[in-house]
């Protein structure tokens, strides 16, 4: 998003809730528009009022609920506008977590919405395949584009002062980053870490906040490793931690194209990732740039971590994997595909 401000004069970010920590990281040239509504259909009148008054050339959504709300409002938009859905997660994964009735209704609403988009952007090939399978839209309306993840700001933030005493010690530090939610699989990571420290000294830091905090803390206490695991919570600068880690572990049950995995590689940090749907296998080029392990398999994860700690790849080799996700080239591609930038 910030890179777009280098090429476009006017960018508005529409939010229902302005109390989002990540908004503080936006380029000051980007306008934050608070719709002052709850997410969902109740926000439609405010959304339509914004669109018909401001008349943006393109509107880009990045949440399934926003896709469906915007699709319902398309008959009430009073001028030609390009509607673009950006999809970062496999739709089928979200559908599988619902009961049969909700799954059928949600699938119908998704099909309705996607047929009203002019363009759908997927962040990985597997996500694109999933979209085509679920929605039935034509292939010419979908593009696979890399996330514009790796910016100069990442490297600037990574050089901030050491944020945790463990990162100044000689003991290896394993990192996990993400919402403390079941999707992120941190229970598996903690169990794997417990196996790791039976064979070598190490520390584990998991950054993030969420509903699973108490459950994870109980597991840590149960395993007797409270002195070796830290859950500092959310931080606006995870890169100061990540750049000093010995290994980053993505333990997710599912993803789209996980930015944090790309960011770890860009910083030259060795990685272990679950071979979850979707993203890690594409980013790591089938395991060339990092170890891939089965989802929820803490024994396999522990072995992969031990392998990485004992024989880490060179930082320059790992950084090669992040090159396709450089912010400026990826942003230029995004803007060209949306018709906002000419060749």
Write up what this structure looks like:
The protein has 343 residues and is α/β, with parallel strands linked by helices. The protein has 2 domains: 158 residues, Rossmann fold; 174 residues, Rossmann fold (3-Layer(aba) Sandwich). Helices cover 38% and strands 15% of the residues. The strands form 3 sheets. A 6-stranded parallel sheet has the order 9-8-7-10-11-12, with helices on both faces. Helix 7 packs parallel to helix 8. It starts with 11 loop residues before the first strand and ends in a 6-residue tail after the last helix. The model has no long low-confidence stretch (mean pLDDT 94). One of its GO terms (molecular function) is glycosyltransferase activity. Keywords: Transferase.
Topology overview:
Elements: E1 12-15, E2 31-34, H1 44-54, E3 58-61, H2 64-73, E4 82-87, H3 91-96, H4 100-114, E5 119-122, H5 125-135, E6 142-144, H6 152-158, E7 173-177, H7 186-196, E8 203-207, H8 213-223, E9 229-233, H9 239-242, E10 247-250, H10 259-266, E11 271-274, H11 280-283, E12 291-293, H12 298-310, H13 315-322, H14 327-337
Parallel strand pairs: 1-2, 3-4, 4-5, 5-6, 7-8, 7-10, 8-9, 10-11, 11-12
Helix pairs in contact: 1-2, 2-4, 7-8, 7-12, 10-13
Keywords: Transferase
Protein name: Alpha-1,4-N-acetylgalactosamine transferase PglH
GO molecular function, one term: glycosyltransferase activity
Number of domains: 2
Percent of residues in beta strands?
A: 5-15%
Would you tell me the overall average pLDDT?
Answer: 94
CATH homology-level superfamily of the largest domain:
Glycogen Phosphorylase B
Number of DSSP helical runs:
14
How are helices and strands ordered from N to C?
A: EEHEHEHHEHEHEHEHEHEHEHEHHH
Strand order of the largest sheet: 9-8-7-10-11-12
Major sheet attributes: 6 strands, parallel
Outline the low-pLDDT stretches: none
Assign the CATH architecture of the largest domain.
3-Layer(aba) Sandwich
The general outline is globular
Q: Briefly, what CATH class of the largest domain?
A: Alpha Beta
Query: Over the alpha carbons, how many angstroms does the gyration radius reach?
Result: 21 Å
- How far the N terminus sits from the C terminus, by CA atoms, comes to 20 Å
CATH topology term of the largest domain: Rossmann fold
Oligomer: single chain
Portion of residues within helices: 25-40%
Structural class, please? Answer: alpha/beta
Keywords: Transferase
Pfam families: Glyco_transf_4 (PF13439), Glycos_transf_1 (PF00534)
Domain Glycosyl transferase family: 168-322
Organism: Dissulfuribacter thermophilus
